[in-house]
Amino acid sequence: MSSLLAVLDAGDAQPAAVRLRARSYDLLGDLPGQTVVDVGCGGGRAVAELAERGAGAIGVDPGPEMIAAARKRFPSGEFRHGDAYDLPLESGSVTGYRADKVLHLLDDPARAMAEARRVLAPGGRIALLGSDWDTIVIDSDDPATTRRLVHAKADSFPSPRIARRHRNLLLDAGFTDPVVEVHTLVLTDDTALALVHRITDDPAWLAEQTERHRTDRIFVAIPMFLVAAQG
Ligand SMILES: C[S@@+](CC[C@H](N)C(=O)[O-])C[C@H]1O[C@@H](n2cnc3c(N)ncnc32)[C@H](O)[C@@H]1O
Predict the structure, then answer these.
(1) Could you list the residue range(s) of the whole structural domain that residue 81 is in?
(2) Is 47 within 8 Å of 57 (Cβ atoms)?
(3) Under a CB-based contact definition with an 8 Å cutoff, are residues 18 and 52 in contact?
């Protein structure tokens, strides 16, 4: 888990990722006075950033290590153990819902959206952010192996292509006025190497990527699907 947090932290620090998180907060509307839940909050950064922007922010995550890390890193944040399917929140008690890089881990994202509807007050806003694991772009001298490895990694998740369905998922759950944006993160440094190591442990393929990293030729592009809508 700590290595996932380390990878998330390195990615979060990229200027494009900082801008993308800020955009996801903007799409929740005017934050001061709002109560926003960040579902699958991981290490808690979004909760701290939402609070800095004046929102009452609550982070929810089922991972005890994640909640412990979030509480340690952001002691003034509010973090609760809980699951996207069964949030530890009263019905209609939040005005904003956010989930970042979480829905691909769920076997039934539609059920999580029904739960989002339950906790959101009427007129509340929702923002979903995530990558489509079939569309991660990696430069390699062996594109066939690259395609196989990327797809094998995608297939390890319950809902690898959910990001391309964010809009339809929200419409099907009864949300309205969806706004769809795709922002591509480009990684050419240590974060790219860390990511390819999370995709596979294939030594030959990783050796090429390591050499590319050494010679400043590693290249990874990740389209991030950001969709917001009205409850
Ligand atoms: C890739 S991390 C993303 C963390 C954070 N949102 C971020 O952007 O850094 C995925 C997070 O989703 C959490 N998660 C996994 N299954 C979940 C579920 N059923 N409900 C809510 N969160 C879940 C994991 O514990 C983990 O913290």
Answers:
(1) 2-132+158-185+224-230
(2) yes
(3) no
Alpha-carbon span 223 to 221, nearest angstrom:
7
Residues 36, 126 contacting (CB under 8 angstroms): no
Tokens describing residue 166: 């964010």
Phi, psi of 210 (to 5 degrees): -65, -40
pLDDT tens readout for residues 146-170: 999 999 999 999 999 999 999 999 9
Q: How much distance in Å is there from the Cα of 42 to the middle of ligand 1?
A: 5
Report the domain count for the chain.
1
Residue 101 CA, ligand 1 centroid: distance in Å = 7
Residue ranges around ligand 1 (CB below 6 Å): 8, 39-42, 61-63, 66, 83-84, 100-102, 105-106
* Nearest Cα residue to atom 27 of ligand 1: 42
Provide the CATH number for the domain around residue 173: 3.40.50.150
DSSP code of 83?
B
Answering whether pTM is above 0.70, one says: yes
- The CA angle 191-138-146, to the nearest 5 degrees, is 120
**Ligand 1 center–CA 43 separation, angstroms:** 9
Would you place residue 50 in the very low, low, confident or very high pLDDT band (cuts 50, 70, 90)? Answer: very high
